[in-house]
Structures are given as structure tokens and as C-alpha cells.
Design a protein that fits this description.
The chain is α+β, with helices and mostly antiparallel strands and 460 residues long. It is built from 16 helices and 16 strands. The strands form 5 sheets. Strands 8, 9, 10, 12 and 14 form a 5-stranded antiparallel β-sheet that branches. Strands 13-11-15-16 form a 4-stranded antiparallel β-sheet, with no helix packed on it. A 3-stranded antiparallel β-sheet has the order 3-4-5, with no helix packed on it. Helix 3 runs antiparallel to helix 16 and helix 7 packs across helix 9.
């Protein structure tokens, strides 16, 4: 440029790099399109099954009590005919291990079945979308409504939708709390507006979480908050069943001669609840719900072309190679899962519904009573059955050792009782020091319901 030429004026606006622009992408609202088909029917079957179990399970009764109840106040967990105590925390641990192993197994074999059909986020999003479609209309109607300026009709439809969402969310929160506080008592408190501060807080908290996650955040929970989407690829291999697009059959896209079966209608993208294009290949945002399969099959039916342009398949199958279902990781997960499940069921079957804790009296180590040495113990006897029991207490381990006083204890159903027990031994029969003894508590008239607990007898 010569000295006489003027330089162009520089823009005072800051220049953003492509990287900076990509880091702050504005969320694009997704309007999932309703589709019908085999997999949509399965999703709704899962919705009905899970919600009937969740909403109805809290109202079931068993032995004149709530069948499923986490009674935190009294530290008991009722599950149908079983009563678990804090000492049974091992069963909760086993349950969590089984859930994790099952998730690993299903993911390795068939991808994200949990996410697509049974995850609460998926289930409640499906319910909320159904409410939205009923009130506001189909996909095009919802998009048109959102583009309209605020008016009475729009306010009415939006208000009705959110009122229905909030009602369902609060009922969900109420039901959730009903598994901790007996639900019939909780219902009476709600009807009289006398719920306690904790019940009120948790009903509101879980109601707000349901409303926010399923009504507003939706796919963002799956894409950004759920850790499962991040590590699922570690459990995938080329024999894992995933949703695939048959590019050999579908490309090149379009209509007319020389084109593939994909007419580029976009229904697979419109039906996707996370807004991805499955034709671009497997992506971590894909939750495996198969809505794109149903949508594509509908188009193929109209065009009189074979179904399966988008389908459940494996990478090996798409490459023309055989798929192996029984492979090392699937067999390993299955064997471990069956082993843990078998051990848990055997433990439950052999579980003795009687628990005993032996504690020495801290007030006195030992004392002399005439020609005898006496130790005092406190026995906590827990009756985990739902029938009253009479327990007989016996002690052994030393010659002529005996219990002084009452050796029978009445314990009510699903309750615990702490009783003092005085044990005596003739002074001349034992040497000074610590001696191992054993308490045996047995339910009178009930075969096999007995517990043995070790302790020590101290002779000064």
C-alpha cells in the first residue's frame, strides 16, 4: 500500500474466535415429534409398569401395615413380609451391587436399555411430553404457539400445561415421601394442612426436581448431568446392540432415481428427544429410546420400502460380520450377577428373624454376692417377625454357671427390648481372670429360631 492511500478503518467490535463461540452455545429448544410403532409401545408399557409400581406400591398393605415403608424414625424397613433393621444394611449393599452389575450387563449386551425405557428422567419426560401434546397440540402446533406473541389463548394453554405439570410433580413428591412417612397418615396431614416441616420440605423438593427435570431441562439432564452417558462407551464393543443407520442402503439421500432409501425427511431428528441426527453415527447423547426407528419405519411404510433403514444392530453386523452375544465380558457380568443374586437369596432364606446384642454392664465389672461372683449384662433382643415371641435365655461356658432371676422375655412384633441379665458362678469353681461364655436366646415353640452370642465372665 502506497503512502498516499488511506488505510481502512478498523472495527472497534471485539473479534471472537471460533473456539470461544462454540463454548457458549445457546440451547436450542427441542420439540420431539410423536411417533407410533413397536418401540413406542414398549416405552409406554415401561411407563405404565414403573408408575403403577411407584404410585401404587405406597398404598399396598401387609399385615395391617404399609407393605413397603422406610421407617427412618423407628429405624425399620418393611418390605412385604420382611422387616429389616440397621444391622441388615448388608442387604442394601447387595441390592446396589446387583443394580450396578445388571446395568453393566444390559449395557454390554444391548446398549442403553435403561436410559431409553426405564430411567425416571426418560419416563417422566415422556409423561410430561404427553401432557404437553394433549394441551398444546402436536409438534407443529407447539412450535407455532411459541412463536406467537403473548395473548389470552397462549397464556391459557401454557397455564393449563404448567398447572398439570405441577400437580403431577407434587403428587410424585407426596408419593416419594409416602415411602418414608406412612402414606395414609401423610395424606391425612396434607388434607388438614398439618404436615411437619420435613415432610413439607421433601414433598416440595422432589416435586420441584420432577417439574424442573422433566418439564424444563429434559435432554440437558441426559446430555450434561448424567454421568452414565460419559462412561457408557467403556462398556460398548462392536457386538453391543445399538441404534444404527444403514448408510449403504440409505445413501445418497434424496428423492428420485439414483438415490438411496433415505429421502432426507428428517423425521428421525424430529422424533429424537435429545435432538441428534442418528445418521451421523452413534453419539453419547443417544439414549437408545428407538423413537427414530419408529419414525423412519413409518416413512418406509408410506413409501412401500423395507423397514430397518434405522434399526437396532451391532457394528459387526453392519460390517457384514457375525455378532457374538456370548462373549467374555457378557459371560463375566452374568456369572458375577448370578453368584451375588444366589448368595443374597440364600442368605434371605436362611436369615434368622432374631437378633441379639450382648453388652456388659459398665457400672460394675464384677461383684461378690455371698459365695458367688456375679456379672451383669444387658441383652438387646430384636424380634424381626410380626408375631409376639417368648424367648428363653440360657448361658454356658463355665461349670455351674446360671442366670439369676427371670430367664424368659416377652418381645412384641417387630420390636426390640433390652433386658438386664445377672449371671452367677460359685467362687470356688473358677479361677480369677477372664472366661469365655456364650448366651443362647431361643424362641419358645419355634424351631430353628435361636441365636448364640459370645461374651466374657470376669472373676476378680
Amino acid at each position: 500500500m502506497s503512502a498516499g492511500q488511506s488505510q481502512p478503518a478498523r472495527s472497534l467490535e471485539p473479534v471472537s474466535s471460533p473456539l470461544e463461540a462454540s463454548l457458549y452455545e445457546v440451547r436450542r429448544k427441542i420439540y420431539p415429534r410423536a411417533v407410533h410403532g413397536w418401540f413406542a409401545a414398549w416405552r409406554w408399557a415401561a411407563v405404565w409398569a414403573t408408575q403403577l409400581a411407584f404410585y401404587g406400591g405406597a398404598w399396598l398393605t401387609w399385615n395391617e401395615r404399609q407393605a413397603i415403608l422406610f421407617d427412618i424414625v423407628h429405624r425399620k424397613f418393611y418390605l412385604l413380609g420382611l422387616v429389616f433393621w440397621p444391622q441388615d444394611i448388608i442387604y442394601l449393599t447387595v441390592l446396589l451391587i446387583l443394580a450396578a452389575l445388571a446395568l453393566f450387563l444390559f449395557t454390554a449386551a444391548a446398549g442403553r436399555l435403561w436410559c431409553g425405557y426405564a430411567c425416571p428422567q426418560t419416563v417422566y419426560t415422556e409423561i410430561f411430553l404427553w401432557i404437553e401434546r394433549v394441551i398444546e397440540g402436536d409438534r407443529n402446533a407447539r412450535m407455532k404457539l411459541d412463536r406467537k406473541s403473548i395473548g389470552l389463548k397462549k397464556l391459557g394453554l401454557k397455564g393449563a400445561k404448567h398447572a398439570a405439570w405441577i400437580a403431577l410433580s407434587l403428587w410424585t413428591g407426596f408419593t416419594f415421601v409416602g415411602y418414608v412417612t406412612p402414606i395414609r397418615e401423610l395424606w391425612a396431614e396434607v388434607m388438614t394442612l398439618s404436615t411437619g416441616p420435613w415432610e413439607t420440605f421433601w414433598i416440595g423438593f422432589y416435586g420441584f426436581a420432577t417439574y424442573g427435570n422433566a418439564g424444563w431441562m429434559r435432554e440437558q439432564v441426559c446430555k450434561y448431568m448424567c454421568p452414565y452417558a460419559r462412561f457408557q462407551s467403556a462398556m460398548f464393543d462392536k457386538d453391543t446392540l445399538i441404534i444404527t443407520y444403514d448408510g449403504k442402503r440409505g445413501e445418497p439421500r434424496g428423492k428420485g432415481a439414483g438415490k438411496g432409501d433415505c429421502v432426507d425427511c428428517g423425521i428421525c431428528v424430529q422424533a429424537c428427544p435429545t435432538g441428534i441426527d442418528i445418521r451421523d453415527g452413534l453419539q453419547y447423547e443417544c439414549i437408545g429410546c428407538a423413537a427414530c426407528i419408529d419414525g423412519c419405519n413409518q416413512v418406509m411404510d408410506k413409501l412401500a420400502r423395507p423397514r430397518g433403514l434405522i434399526r437396532y444392530s451391532t457394528t459387526h453386523a453392519m460390517e457384514g460380520r457375525p455378532t457374538r452375544l456370548l462373549r467374555p465380558r457378557v459371560l463375566a457380568y452374568s456369572m458375577i450377577l448370578l453368584a451375588v443374586l444366589g448368595a443374597a437369596l440364600a442368605s434371605l432364606y436362611l436369615r434368622v428373624p432374631l437378633k441379639v446384642n450382648v453388652m456388659r454392664d459398665r457400672a460394675a465389672i464384677a461383684r461378690e454376692v455371698g459365695d458367688e461372683i456375679e456379672n451383669v449384662y444387658r441383652l438387646q433382643i430384636m424380634n424381626t417377625t410380626e408375631q409376639e415371641r417368648v424367648y428363653e435365655i440360657r448361658v454356658r461356658g463355665l461349670e455351674d454357671i446360671e442366670i439369676e432371676g427371670e430367664d424368659r422375655v416377652h418381645v412384641g412384633p417387630a420390636t426390640a427390648r433390652t433386658v438386664p441379665v445377672r449371671v452367677r458362678v460359685e467362687r470356688d469353681e473358677v479361677e480369677p481372670g477372664t472366661h469365655a461364655i456364650e448366651f443362647r436366646v431361643r424362641a419358645r415353640g419355634v424351631a430353628g429360631e435361636s441365636v448364640r452370642e459370645k461374651s466374657v465372665f470376669i472373676v476378680p
